[in-house]
UniProtKB/TrEMBL annotation:
Lineage: Eukaryota, Viridiplantae, Streptophyta, Embryophyta, Tracheophyta
Protein name (database record): Reticulon-like protein
GO biological process: response to bacterium
Keywords associated with the record: Endoplasmic reticulum, Membrane, Transmembrane, Transmembrane helix
Record-linked InterPro entries: Reticulon (IPR003388), Reticulon-like (IPR045064)
Length: 224
């Protein structure tokens, strides 16, 4: 019929359009991640730092989940091991004329700390602003989607330990941006096709079922 032809013609026109960026973003993925060293690590532009971070996450997960270390015990053992290694190194350097371990005046550079603090503050403020916007009901669909997602996450949390959930989240943070960065065009095209298919399915469902539901006459309010 005419309605269906209009639907399919509009979908055909949409297929000819270039696929938009994922989430209709205007900035590059590097800029969205804050730019600088943080984005370089998450996108594996600095392969050594990214690999070290991933290895550290895996080691921490292994110690907490497999070895079942307690946080306080783990920190104490790390400090004890570090102090023993430095003590033996320092003592051996005096006896065997080795090079003594140097004690740097600054462990963390000021610019790096300021950059990390600035990005964290900006992202945290954006997160709070978005939460308040959703919670006030300004976007009803997003409000319902957020609550359903949180409920699903709470159900998953009953079957997965907090350590495993955090490890999975950090693993996704370390790998998904990099994979999207490498295959950005393919992912955008796939997301565009899925979005068009979902819209086509909804339009078909609306025309074949929702539009055919009989609606009663609207009753006029009696005025006194």
């Amino acid at each position: 019929n005419r309605t269906m032809s209009i639907i399919y013609s509009s979908d055909t026109e949409d297929d000819k359009k270039p696929s938009p960026k994922l989430f209709d973003r205007r900035r590059s993925i590097h800029q969205i991640l804050g730019g600088g060293k943080v984005a370089d690590v998450l996108l594996w532009n600095d392969k050594r730092a990214s690999a070290a971070l991933l290895a550290g996450i895996a080691v921490i997960w292994f110690l907490f989940e497999v070895v079942e270390y307690n946080l306080v015990s783990l920190l104490c053992h790390i400090f004890i091991t570090t102090m023993l290694v430095l003590f033996i190194w320092r003592t051996g350097a005096e006896i065997f004329k080795w090079r003594a371990p140097g004690i740097p005046e600054t462990i963390l550079d000021d610019s790096t700390f300021r950059e990390f603090a600035s990005i964290s503050q900006e992202k945290f403020n954006q997160f709070l602003s978005k939460v308040l916007y959703i919670a006030c009901g300004n976007d009803l669909k997003l409000f319902l989607l957020t609550n359903v997602s949180l409920w699903i996450l709470s159900v998953i949390g009953n079957y997965i330990s907090t350590v495993n959930l955090l490890f999975f989240g950090l693993l996704c943070l370390e790998t998904l941006p990099f994979l999207y960065y490498q295959y950005e065009e393919q992912v955008d095209n796939l997301a565009g096709r899925v979005n068009r298919q979902m819209r086509q399915t909804y339009k078909k469902f609306d025309s074949e079922f929702l539009q055919k539901i009989p609606r009663g006459p609207v009753k006029e309010k009696k005025t006194r």
